[in-house]
Every structure is written in C-alpha cells, then in structure tokens.
Specification:
Strand order of the largest sheet: 5-4-1-2-3-6
Distance between the termini: 31 Å
Strand content: 15-25%
Structural class: alpha+beta
Largest sheet: 6 strands, antiparallel
Number of strands: 6
Shape: globular
Oligomer: single chain
Helix content: 25-40%
C-alpha cells in the first residue's frame, strides 16, 4: 500500500512490493463471488424488517450488519488495491485450474509455494481462457500464530479478472509482473505433481 494511506482491514505493518493498485468493479466481483455479498445484504435486510415490525432495539443489529457489509466490500477493495500481485497460469480447462506462485518469506530466506485454485473465469473482450494462459492474481497473506516464524502461513490469491473487466487495468497489472517471475513459475510447475489438482504445494522444507 502507499505510504500515505492506511487501511481498515489489512495489516499495515507490511507492504506489497508490487501492489495491485486496481479499483474493483463491484458487479464483476458479485458475479464471480456471490455467496458472501448475498449473505451479508440478506441479513441486513432481514434485520431491517425485524426492526420495523418487531422492536426498535433491533435497529442496533441492523447498524451492525450495515457495518459488516461495508467492511466486507472494503476488504475486497483493499485486497486489489494493496494486495500482492502474483504470476499465475491456467493449467486445466475442465475443471478450470489456476496455478499461482508466491514466496511466503517475510524478508529472510526463500519459501516458494504453488497454490492451485479452481475458478471459472469471466469473459473479457472475448479472451479465451485455455491452459497456458498467463494471468495476474492479487493475494493477501495470513500470519502464523507464532509471529516469530520467518514466513507467512498461507496466502489467498484471487484472479484480477474476477474483480474488474477493464482490459487496460488487467493488462497493466499483468505487465507489471517481472519476467523472472514467469520463469520461476514455469520452473516451479515442473515440481508440482501430475495430474494437477487443487491444493498448496510447498517447494521448500521447513527447518
């Protein structure tokens, strides 16, 4: 994230070396990840009806649920604005599997990981999503309960095309990934077991 701005939803003690810097389009995100947005807004609407029909004190619950809705969308926005851009490649078309490479290091040592996620991708200007297609993803990272660990516990990559359909933004973020990252992804995929399947594949040994 930029030095000038902090967030409400992310750990401001660390900053991505290559942040996403992309404004999400809520309707694009909603079409790709509808479950939680629908759950939060449905609960808020239900609480609103109960506050009107049952008892005034339930307005408090409605206010809390409005805040939860705001926090949900703020976190999605923060992920794609400040999260780390990672190189990714489609490795299977049916089902659609996407392999994402990152280094879980907090700055000391190297902890390369490939995570394979399953996600159908939306159309963007008629682009075909076939095996071998390079993608940009934006990730958030999860701390270990033991904060002395030199690496992150996990990461959550989301394809950029699931947050915006602006082709110029998508292309700009994809171009921001350095060539060596694509080379490292290609080399890492040679170590991932076949056939490809969802999961996290650690290319290092903990000591």
């Amino acid at each position: 994230m930029s030095d000038a701005e902090s967030t409400w939803t992310l750990d401001d003690s660390t900053r991505a070396s290559n942040p996403g810097g992309t404004q999400i389009k809520p309707m694009v995100w909603l079409s790709q990840y509808p479950a939680w947005p629908i759950i939060w807004i449905s609960l808020a609407v239900l609480m609103l009806l109960l506050a009107i029909l049952v008892h005034w004190s339930l307005w408090i619950g409605f206010a809390v649920l409005l805040a939860m809705n705001w926090l949900y969308w703020r976190r999605v926005r923060d992920q794609f604005m400040y999260g780390a851009v990672n190189s990714a490649v489609i490795v299977s078309e049916n089902p659609m599997l996407i392999a994402v490479l990152t280094d879980l290091s907090k700055g000391t040592g190297n902890f390369p990981v490939v995570k394979i996620i399953q996600k159908d991708l939306p159309e963007v200007e008629g682009r075909r999503w076939v095996p071998g297609t390079a993608l940009a993803t934006v990730s958030l990272y999860t701390r270990h309960r033991d904060d002395s660990m030199p690496r992150w516990a996990d990461f959550d990559p989301r394809p950029l095309v699931c947050a915006t359909d602006d082709a110029s933004d998508i292309d700009a973020v994809t171009r921001s990934i350095p060539p060596e990252s694509w080379d490292e992804l290609a080399a890492a995929m040679k170590q991932v077991p076949r056939p490809f399947a969802r999961g996290t594949f650690y290319l290092f040994k903990d000591t």
